[in-house]
Amino acid sequence: MIIGDKLPAFNLKGVDGEMSNQYAYADRYALLVVFTNNSCPVAVAYRNRIKNLLKRYEEDNLGIIRINSTTKNSEAESLEEMKKMYDDLKLPHLYLMDDDQTVAKAFGATKVPEAFLFNSKRELVYKGAIDDSWENENMVTRVYLEDAIEAALDGIDVDYPEIDPIGCDIVLK
């Protein structure tokens, strides 16, 4: 995807057993889609940071969807393990399984975690890294995604709309 592209269509099963599509959170002013998984050390390091983004911006109408596209042939990435992690962390947003990787391909997602932020018109306004220090949250100096969320919620252009994501590769089948 390139900046300005529309949110791709999808229909995926979530850890709640329900199907969800691109219209989830249609009432929200901005939508964050994060490709993640249960086992990548970088994705694990960002679990609570992503959860905290929703806590911080939910009143400002941010919706968050996590998508796991690394579920094939991995017990750690099964729907059951996804649900366990979801329940353990008490995640307040959707966590969906992209087992055939069609959604990852549609987005052009290459890493976990990788963020895609859409404005109220569901146009892509940011893609890439969450911040500049996955190893230590206390060492973060650049909050790329948070800056992008602020801009999207304010209805202004994102200063740095693309930052290379850091994480584990999504191995496409």
TrEMBL record:
Gene3D superfamilies: Glutaredoxin. One of its GO terms (molecular function) is oxidoreductase activity. This is Redoxin domain-containing protein. It holds the Pfam family AhpC-TSA. It comes from Solitalea agri. Residues 1-154 form the Thioredoxin domain. InterPro entries: AhpC/TSA, PRX-like1, Thioredoxin-like_sf, Thioredoxin_domain.
